[in-house]
Amino acid sequence: MSGLDKMKSRILEEADHSAKEIIGKAQTEAEAIIKAAEEEARTEAAKISEKAERDAADYAERVASSMDMRRKQAYLSAKQDVISHILKSAYDTVMDLDVREYFDMLEKLLEKYVLPEEGVICFSERDLGRMPEGFSGKIKTIAAAKGGSLTLSDEARDIDGGFLLVYGGIEENCTIKAVFDAKREELSDQVNRILFG
After folding, report:
1. pLDDT at 176 over 90
2. At 23, is the secondary structure helix, strand, or coil?
3. What is the Cβ-side half-sphere exposure of residue 178, based on CA atoms within 13 angstroms?
4. Rounded to an integer, what distance in angstroms lies between the CA atom of residue 14 and that of residue 145?
5. What is the pLDDT of residue 127?
6. Coil, helix or strand for 114?
7. 3-class secondary-structure state, position 165
8. How far apart are CA 100 and CA 97, in angstroms?
9. Cα three-residue angle 180-186-189, rounded to 5 degrees
10. Which single residue of 28, 38, 135, 148 could bond 116 by disulfide (Cβ 3.0 to 4.6 Å)?
11. Is 167 helix (H, G, I), strand (E, B) or coil?
12. Who contacts 114 (Cβ-Cβ below 8 Å, separation ≥6)?
């Protein structure tokens, strides 16, 4: 082997050795990069998984809260329906009282609302037609006891039941509907307490 061949051989050996070192180093670095990338991927996957679990828990909580709110609203709506039905039923019961009980109730209502002034009392056509004998005398007596006087109007008014008191052009609405409407909140509270505690 000549000196040139030896030199070539030595250069090739060194190049081969250098290449092996570079390849080994590159493989080690590549393995470290892959290992770091895998670790980073596992960390990111864990973060994504934790976030997904939190998001799922938050969503489940919102759904449960929404369902609870809807349940409460449905319950409240049902309560209001029951209370309204009972008040309507009570109104119907008052309107369907027999004549004696109905006009006894109107007497009490008149005692409460009559003023110590001169006025006119007006009834519905139905009540004018079924008014008990002597009731107009009771009206006069009740008004006089309060220091006033009432004249019974023979002109029927378009009202459900009860009466209107007219003093100097100002009407006091004492119809059954007006009394129920004025007391609706109080009556609703009473029915609510009785039925739902």
Report:
1. yes
2. helix
3. 14
4. 134
5. 95
6. coil
7. strand
8. 8
9. 125
10. 148
11. strand
12. 142, 143, 146, 148, 150, 165
Q: Which two tokens stand for residue 58?
A: 């938050």
Contact 87, 182 (CB under 8 A): no
Distances (CA, A) of 124 to 68, 93, 98, 139: 49, 18, 16, 16
**Among 172, 90, 174, CA closest to 127:** 174
Extract the tokens encoding 93: 């019961």
The residue with tokens 């509270």 is 189
- Per DSSP bridges, beta strands 170-175 and 149-152 are unpaired
Q: Taking the model in full, what pTM does it have? A: 0.63
C-alpha–C-alpha distance, residues 197 and 190, integer Å: 10
Total residues belonging to the chain? 197
Residue 1's pLDDT band, with cuts at 50, 70 and 90, is low
Q: Are the C-beta atoms of 111 and 142 separated by less than 8 Å?
A: yes
Q: How many CA atoms lie within 13 A of 4 on its CB side?
A: 0
DSSP classification of residue 96: T
